[in-house]
Write the structure tokens for this entry.
Amino acid sequence: MDRFTQTIDSAVQAKDYSTLAQIFSFGPDSWQSVGQGEQRSLAAHFIKTAVAAPGFLPAAFSSGQMMHVMLETLGHLPSTVDGAADNKLRQMIFDYKVNEEGEYSEAARVLAGTRMEDNHDSVYFMKPEEKCDVYVKIAECFLEEDEIVESDSAVTKAGLVVESIAKPEEHMTLILRYKSTYARVLDSNRKFLQAASRYHDLSQSSTELIRAEDLLGMLGRAATCAILAPSGPQRQRVLGHIYKDDRLSQLDGIPQFETQSVILSKMYKYHILRPEELKKFESSLQPHQKAVMGDGLTIMERGVVEHNMISVSKIYDSIYVSELALFLGVNPDKAEKIAARMIMDGSLAGSIDQVEGLLEFQSEDSDQMAWDKAISNFCEGLNEVTDAIRAL
């Protein structure tokens, strides 16, 4: 054991990567020749020595041989390493992989092994804002590689600790990073209604913390997600918030969002949208926003079809399914299935006479509709309160 520690000390001092790689490999002269407890001690000694040695890091990161040794030893540690040297090494590797190699997924996985404890006496004690920063970094990196499940898990953990930050006003940059990452995860998970609401809230942040052009970008993302969200009272409410934003027309000057204001305004006013109006909007969408759903329609096509269905219900008391299909740009069979699904999920009030091939819409001023609207408004209010509490 002593000869190994002395050799490690000398090799680190001399930057002798080959000797270190030989020690932490397989063979009679490697750390495999001692027990597991001693192996953990050797791993801890190496990491502590490497972190403390002037000039050894980050230069050693450029050696694939040494990077393998460091990752191997990080996976074979005792319960505690003096000075939390393993956490320091993880952070240094994370910074190197992000800034020098652009390996975001690998960087996130290294940082995910960071040990964080609530016990003030532990070397691994971290304040809530420090934990939140680690989780947000992990989520941001996984998002860069479109690893949504992993990013969702990390941002959820960040959400659990962000509420415990003692003085949030002193950590607003971190909190905004968390909110932005959470909105992007919702967007990537195709939870467009929640994402739209989050993006719009972010777009109204102080320009002292976020540049005005970035805030406008958030507004553009909010508009995009609101357009893609499933039809219903909650979407109409979000559309209304964005429609009444004084900056909405400014999106016309941003190529990525130049059609959003017109389409969103028409949706809010229940105007029927034509396919030719949507070509440029569709070209601005991200890959996950162009996915084809189980009914054969893309997310955008489904959102527009549902919107046009509701728009038709504002104009007609009843309509033949064959005529409805012309408005929606689909065949009659699909038009009937879409209408049936919307009636079943409560986003459309009406009934279908299959014998006559007629769709009859229920008037909004009926007692049943008034009751449904009251329930819907209550649920929307409850959702907003829940979101507001989680955003704190």
In short: The radius of gyration is 28 Å. Residues 194 and 208 are 25 Å apart (CA to CA). The chain has a mean pLDDT of 90. The first strand starts at residue 318 and ends at 320.
